[in-house]
Amino acid sequence: MIGILGGTFDPIHHAHLRTALEVAEHFGISDMRLIPGKQPPHRPQPIARPEQRLAMLQAAIATEPRLHADDRELRREGHSYSFDTLQTFRAEVGNERPLLFTLGFDAFLHFERWHRWDEILALAHLVVVHRPRYSLPPNGWYEPFLSTNPDDLRATPAGRIYLLSVTALDISATHLRMLLKQGKSPRYLLPDSVLDYIQRHQLYCE
Ligand SMILES: Nc1ncnc2c1ncn2[C@@H]1O[C@H](COP(=O)(O)OP(=O)(O)OP(=O)(O)O)[C@@H](O)[C@H]1O
Ligand SMILES: O=C(O)c1ccc[n+]([C@@H]2O[C@H](COP(=O)([O-])O)[C@@H](O)[C@H]2O)c1
């Protein structure tokens, strides 16, 4: 089983890290990939450069062996579509190994607008994690795909949607960038190693 958490990570924060770790522990995953997007679709483009977002991610996960920084989207030109990313995983690991693509409620609410969204479940399972202030509408398109049994996801390579409560942390990168712009400290909302990097490179201050 390979776990995947994609994001803009501008910058990475404790809610991303807890989500990645809690998904890994819930499913017993030893290889959880955090994948920064080079050109994230459907949102304003990041402020920090791709290599800076990767460096902050690497600093954040340096001491946790289950979490791995994966730079495949940074090596690809154009929009960082998840469908394309998942296809590269399938080319590497074949069609049998379960892939667990993790995303928060906020991202999942727009899933039907994603590039080739209706083909993504043929490539991976989706683990949709709770995020404070967001909820899913009842009777959504996704209901026939829901599973509540982790063994279902272990037994098949793709095709299920699993809702998971993770520690509720109302942290967003937008809020962290706003604090920094206002000259306030985001300390304790993200790892000190990431804050050190931000300060050394004077990121998000204007
Ligand atoms: N506080 C949180 N709780 C649960 N999931 C989260 C949280 N923050 C981010 N995520 C999830 O992590 C993934 C990457 O998120 P992203 O890098 O866009 O962070 P963000 O804090 O939402 O950033 P921004 O404020 O810049 O949009 C998405 O799937 C998102 O839903
Ligand atoms: O593939 C798409 O069309 C698509 C559209 C929006 C978001 N995503 C993915 O969703 C993840 C979270 O995105 P974001 O913008 O919240 O950082 C990240 O892996 C993105 O690549 C993917």
TrEMBL record:
Its EC number is 2.7.7.18. Pathway: Cofactor biosynthesis; NAD(+) biosynthesis; deamido-NAD(+) from nicotinate D-ribonucleotide: step 1/1. The keyword Nucleotide-binding applies. It catalyses: nicotinate beta-D-ribonucleotide + ATP + H(+) = deamido-NAD(+) + diphosphate. GO terms for biological process: NAD+ biosynthetic process. Residues 4-149 form the Cytidyltransferase-like domain. The keyword Nucleus does not apply. Keywords: ATP-binding, NAD, Nucleotide-binding, Nucleotidyltransferase, Pyridine nucleotide biosynthesis, Transferase. It is an enzyme of class 2 (transferase). It holds the Pfam family CTP_transf_like. Catalyzes the reversible adenylation of nicotinate mononucleotide (NaMN) to nicotinic acid adenine dinucleotide (NaAD). Belongs to the NadD family. This is Probable nicotinate-nucleotide adenylyltransferase. It comes from Thiothrix subterranea. The gene is nadD.
